Amino acid sequence: MFIGIDLGTSSVKAVLVDDGEQLLATESRPLAISRPRPGWSEQAPDDWWQATVAAIDALAAARPAEVAATRGIGLSGQMHGAVLLDRDDRPLRPAILWNDGRSATQCAAFEAAFPASRAVTGNLAMPGFTAPKLLWVREHEPDVFAALATVLLPKAFVRLKLTGERREEMSDASGTLWLDVAQRRWSDEALAASGLDRSQVPALSEGNAAAGMVLPALASRWRMPPSVVVAGGAGDNAASAIGLGAVAPGSAFLSLGTSGVFWLTTDGFRPDPEHAVHAFCHAVPATWHAMSVMLSAASSLAWLAALLGRPEAALLQEFDAVPVPRPTARDDPMFLPYLGGERTPHNAAALRAAFEGLSHDTDVAALVRAVLEGVSFGLRDGVDVLRALRTPFASALAVGGGARSRGWLTMLASVLAMPISRVDGAESAAATGAARLGQMAATGKSPAAVCRLPRVVEVIEPDPAAVRAYEDRLTLFRERALRLVMDVRAARSTDPATGARSGA
Prior knowledge:
By secondary structure, this protein is α/β, with parallel strands linked by helices. It is built from 18 helices and 24 strands. The strands form seven sheets. Strands 1, 2, 3, 5, 13, 14 and 15 form a seven-stranded mixed beta sheet that branches. A seven-stranded mixed beta sheet has the order 18-19-17-16-22-23-24, sandwiched between helices. Strand 18 and strand 19 form a beta hairpin. Helix 1 crosses helix 7 and helix 12 packs antiparallel against helix 14. It starts with a strand and ends in an 11-residue tail after the last helix. The relative contact order is 0.13. The C terminus is likely disordered.
């Protein structure tokens, strides 16, 4: 038996699978996000641990015999978050999350202090990454920075509580801006640019390697054997890739979660920082990946649902209940999906969303369609950047909560001009991938033996007529998005407190 723990932004999910990878049970516990100021996003690390314990407690109560037979545990987690611990491993402040935009100014400072940053890390410095967050803390909370003993990423904090080990794996470490991604090791120069050294970061492991054992008191609590291995694990998207079997070069998937991600597995280091592509290590050895990332995907629809006082699921059901009309009019409502800034391809933390083309005739259905279309166009921007890399791809699997909507996937197939496949277990891909990493760590099995493709439920092909119509709308979307980006950059370039490079 194997357990996968997925520490997301909105919940912690734990899954129990048997040796044949049959999903036996799933438990989840919600998490709250604090936004103390506009553009800020924080969570209490201890809340993650309490939710994790509660989820595993529930698994143990529902499946006591199976949990007692657990041999390996894998961890998946939201990336980039800065968990700052003192010498007693106590959090010094709430964790600053991946979608926090406060450190835009510090991105330029980091790259100035480490001129080789883009070549070594493969990534443009962005507020979402961990390194600029530390520079912000050093500048604005010097007492916290002075007391800092260890910096961990979110799932590494859960591992610390689970095993007592301070360890991290390559895929998550890639998102800190402290990793030499090609060499798969910490960069002393990158750490120094943040005022840190190796004593303040965890040791590194591959994601499918053993990275600790469950502490005896916890093993006793869950009636597990005393030798349960905890794998290195993976960042959330790398874990989804493991769960989807995306370990061969050219494997691609689309994640429609809080953020929107298009993943491409590569056989080498394929950086493109100028277009804000993320070039990271995969969670298995000698494998890398490239990702385009937009910050507000399904969360854009969640925002609209909250504004309207309607359940998000109900809005999607209504959208799915009618045929998806082809876009034909330039004056149809359009949504620019930048609620919390954007990464690929704009790297614009200060960018904000907008509705355009609203009229007295605009109804709820038109707003929902505009939001889903706007997110789809934002994803297309990232996909086009990835198409320029040296790893070809022709189709993608769909995962995440948004993948429940067939209507949205139909729209995406035509907007992206590629087949999109719905698969079994898409909503639990990250947790399942974590369990697979736990299985590899406990058994020594290879990625090829464990990381099989899930069953394809349906392949949604692009509609040629819709592809052509969306291309016209895409041109208009890009014109309007570029105008917003230029306005933001112009505004920040005239702000003497920030400077031209600190904004977008």
